[in-house]
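Minutes, project check-in
Item: structure for the 486-residue chain
Input as provided by the requester:
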Amino acid sequence: MPQTNAEAASAGEQLCFLPAIVLREHIARREISPVEVTRAVLDRAEGLQPMLNCFITICRDEALREAEAAEKALLRGESRGMLHGVPFTVKDLVNTAGVRTTFGSRLFENNVPTEDAQAVARLRRAGAILIGKTTTPEFGAKSLTDAPLFGRTRNAWSAAHTSGGSSGGAAVAVAVGIAPLAVATDGGGSTRIPAACNGVVGLKQSNGVIPHSQAADAFGNHTYVTPMTRTIADTALMLQVMAGADESDPWSYGSAEADYLEAAKAEGDLRGKRILFCAAPPGRPIAAEVAAAFAATLQRLRDLGAELEEMDGKRFDIEPMWRAINHTTWLARFGAMAARDADKMSPSLLRQLASASQVSGVAYQEAMFARTALFRHVQALLRDHDLLVTPTLSRTALPIDQDLFDGITVDGKAFEDLRANWFPWTMPFNMTGHPAMSIPCGFGDNDLPIGFQIVGRFRAEAEVLRVGALLEAAQRLLTRWPVLQG
């Protein structure tokens, strides 16, 4: 009997929500065509774009050509690799050969790179198919995804709330079933913040595990090209493909190979694991519903056999240090553009550049000293403990019209500094380089997602994935996704 339109739509939606780890097996067995899945996610992207605004560029023609080539290769008995025929998206900060890459800026509105960033090249060599470039604030310069070039990106669960940032488009696309895999970036939480806001998995791996071939300062780098997915297994799959040494990134050398896919299996328990936890740094807020979800997740860790110990959270109030390092980097990169074309640039970026001009060379170097001290502090904490866990954010997603320089409210109480009071736990691990992953751990009273952050020893991504997989299985949240009609 032929399918009705409703049944066909339902089947297409189910296809869009298949995890990559499952989809690749169906494609390899020729049970699902690369053309079929690519067309399904492209149709979903185009149908939902007017509502969500999570893409800057959709590559329909290019993606379908690649899908047709992938299908013909399968018919010949050929496979490109682990991701043959699997669709993915790329944040518009990350270079893609032959595909417009704007950095969310009017100044680069028609920029087309001639080569892929190394992380993207590896995904493509593994057979993945690029379907589009996702939204970012200009140069990824804030935790809210809006820019003069394209407007605002809304939250996957609520039109009234922000997607977070700066990888807001990547998180929203993944959450609503527009390709299972997304390339994001993280300079102070830019993967984990939107992951928490939209209820997906966002990993910031250790420095160098995935090479960052676009980092302007490779040696002092604190930014990361990252995976963003709906499941821990898909994050492991992306990491397996993207990880490994590359001549562009000195941090990438000396990183041991690991079987991330094996690590991400929800097998065994956490007996013998010692985990430190803290709900909020001293003096920082936490919403009651976030505190409750955090406590419930801690109990799941105990149920899995882990030994938990509370830490005081001192020495993690590092936003001034992060700002001195991060904003002066931006000033060096974008200062000349601002002097020449300020009228075309985001006011929030210009304001941050202006603040960086007050940071002296001595103050910058003192911030670098503080970065080293923070690394050693985390190393000391993890000497006798396997992991640290925290809430990802102090509260759920902020209102969609939130300004970076306005205060925020947490349970009705006002706080002036957005960064220090909304995501105090993400910035530290950009500075230290330790792996940190946000996973969903529940929903607030308004049905907005809540995130839980798992931090591991340096280059211990496999252990972070394993703990995340066990929690993911225990929480049983993978059947709940946004319901949207394009």
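Outcome recorded: Residues 231 and 412 are 33 Å apart (CA to CA).
No further action items on this chain.
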